[in-house]
Specification:
single chain, alpha+beta, Immunoglobulin-like, Zincin-like, Neutral Protease, domain 2, 7-stranded mixed sheet, disordered N terminus, binds ligand BES, binds zinc ion, hydrolase, Peptidase_M4/M1_CTD_sf
Length: about 625
Amino acid sequence: MKKLAWLLTTIPLYMACTPATDNASQAQLPQSTNPSADNIKAGVDYHSFSNPDEVTVTHLDIELTANFTAKVLSGSVTLDYERQTPNASSLILDTRDLAIERVTANGEAVDFNLRPADPELGAALEINLPQSASQVTIEYATSPQASGVQWLTPSQTAGKEHPFLFTQAQAVHARSFIPLQDSPQVRVTYNATIHTPPELLAVMSAANDPQTERDGEYDFTMPQPVPSYLIALAIGDLHFKPMGERTGVYAEPALLEAAAEEFADTESMLLATENTYGPYGWDRYDLLILPPSFPFGGMENPRLSFITPTVIAGDKSLVSLIAHELAHSWSGNTVTNATWRDLWLNEGFTTYLTYRIMEMIYGNDRYRMEAVLGYQDLQNDIAALDDNDEILAIDLRGRNPDDVFSNIPYEKGALFLRELEHKVGRDNFDQFLLNYFDHFAFKSITTDEFVAYLNKTLVADYPEQLNEERIQQWIFEPGIPAGAPVPESDAFMLVDQARQNWLAGEKAASDIKTAGWTVHEWLYFLNNMPAQLSDEQLAELDSAFGLTASTNNEIAHSWLMIAVHNEYQPAYNRLYNYLVTIGRNKLVKPLYRELSKTPEGKAFAQKAFAEARPGYHPLTIKANEGFVE
Ligand code: BES
Ligand code: ZN
């Protein structure tokens, strides 16, 4: 009975989670050309309850106080809006686990209704708009369990003395700390005032003043309109160090120097990207180094990318992450996916740009190695995923975008663009991208709008080289089209040779000439080992190369995957330590998944997870708890 009641309150809402009406602008959008999903409406955001077609929010004034004892952000947001339909009488916002205290317009209370919550998408907040008003103020507080906020105790930080808070809004979590139209097709400018304990500094995805007085009250402005998933806040014992004219890093004191050295090439990356794809549109580009529980590698919050500390390797080997988050300033933040189905427009273009930036800064050999590693990740996903999840313009109806994270939008998207580049020539393709970023600047676009633009421009200019069917195949069909580019690396051929010689017993591990190997060669060496290795072989590798003790988190990850698969016990202390100190989901999830395959592995995973859980981000908990049940 109870279960039925739950179904009745949740399912119908979830199924109906589309904007309330199809307004003129959405109706004009081209219909999806995906034959297997022709009833998907391009441009409809299936992950927001909001009604931007009727009333569009254009600006936010946020005022919040961070209470680290209660783990609550409380205060108000004032939303400026424009009516799209003259008689629109209600504004529908997204919320999740918010306590809504009061809604006012022109100083007077207005009626609102918080609908029952959907477990994945939260609760729609319906506000009755008085005829005369053009803004409403909502007083509210977040929940300590807010899915988009992580509150860390001092012991979970590098300095161990001060607490830390950070938000992560993408894909659908901004609604857990601000009631708003939480859809990437709605762009807002924002101002914010954040109150913190006086010894801490707040930073946001907005104009940050590195010289600001540390007094517990911080003001921010974001003058360019951004989608809600790019609104971000962090608070901690943060300090700033410049890296270049427009670039710098915020971090806890213990990490500041190391981070500034590791990411010293950020300014050159910025200049190189501008040279190729047009001016950087966001004024400064700074990095914020988060505690290790940050669930992603990086997040492209405008003007201030959020970065995991797990890439501070000491040798710049993992800085493609910075190139990636920087590239989003063009692909993602300037031209934005209109719905989560169109995520590949953000991530595929960004992955393509990442490779190009890495080549410009570090040369062709490194680019080739990174491209092969990315291609292998893609092939592994294609081997494992259902057909529908291999489609760039993916059908996410009824699913939480968080649960569908894969290399498809990234590496398949990038490979598609690489093919276009090869067909029309690099300079011509760069010119196309430059025009594209300019044409759609500060717009949120659908896959179909991109295809229409591509057909009108590049395909029309190069009819001999390009054709529309091939493009349709790339975007709307699973797998990799036959004849697609295949990345290759000479350096890796030598690694293949070394691995084979060792596996055949022709060469001892200690005789492999690894002196000149970069992290990429190590990753390729390890990732392409056969599934089964004997204890003797594992011990030989470990003693020759000190793999269990590797301080490079990516190498350690690849090695630990092998160790778990082969139940190589000498690595398990390291494994335990890795799982309880790192919360980056890409690094820990595959380990939990692999561990969960045997009863002993599962027991080990349960122990590590129980210890790690209080320090994990809500997204990392959600992504892994299934493996330890
Ligand atoms: N924007 C993404 C992270 C993201 C994507 C969060 C979808 C939520 C939903 C970010 O730019 C990203 O791609 N991060 C990667 C970086 C990697 C591919 C270099 C990551 O965190 O691993
Ligand atoms: Zn990205």
